[in-house]
Design a protein that fits this description.
single chain; about 70 residues; 3-stranded antiparallel sheet; extended
Length: about 70
């Protein structure tokens, strides 16, 4: 899998996939645009199972403080 990306055009789309053995696939899609700090995030749920899937969304924003290195 790819672990490095480079914005070479005006827009970069990065898709992360999670597949469950039952046939459920979740894709988290990030869109980055040149000269912008805005990151668009979309979720896609694909149900390739024979049964109805029902779920709830949970999100978390977390900021870790990193102490600046002293010279």
């Amino acid at each position: 899998s790819q672990n490095q990306y480079q914005l070479t055009e005006d827009t970069l789309n990065v898709d992360l996939h999670w597949d469950h053995e039952s046939g459920l696939r979740v894709t988290k899609s990030f869109q980055f645009q040149r000269d912008s700090y805005l990151i668009k995030v979309k979720y896609f749920i694909e149900n390739h199972t024979a049964s109805i899937w029902q779920g709830s969304f949970y999100g978390q924003l977390r900021r870790d403080y990193v102490k600046p290195k002293s010279n």
